[in-house]
Amino acid sequence: FDGRIAGNAQSIQQLNGKISDSDARIAQHSTRIDSLGGRVTDLGQQVGALDQTVGGFDERITRNTDQVDRLKDAVKHMPDGLVREDEETGNITLARNLESQRVDISGSAAGVDGAAARVLTGVADPEDAFDAVNKGYLDQIQQNIKQETERNASQITALDQQVLGLDQKVGGFD
Hints:
174 residues, two-stranded antiparallel ribbon, 2 helices
């Protein structure tokens, strides 16, 4: 018996060593599991924050979509002829069907001189009596007037010379 008891005691001691090794590994795995649990909790919090951010985007997208829909509706309900493009000619008309006598393109920000004026660009040379004129057209008219004035001044000087000559001839008859 003593031999068997000694053998069993040794087997029990070996099993206790294996159990201790297993307990150490279980403790090690428990520490890893606790660490992973903390990471999972952190990831859960990050996902929650991301959900809130995406929810905010959803609200803004919905609000922007509503604003675009309101703008589309406002454009649809503008008075006829306010701004239209003729599909055949490509001409754009402004307020054609309205009775207004004046078109104001001024802005709300005052310029250097205190006026809220804007520059209208791309105006072609006029073709009809009611067409707008551009600076190039006005510069050409100014040049033409200057040339005509110089030509007239030259002709007046020549006439003055002729009158003086006649005065001298008439003066010789006195």
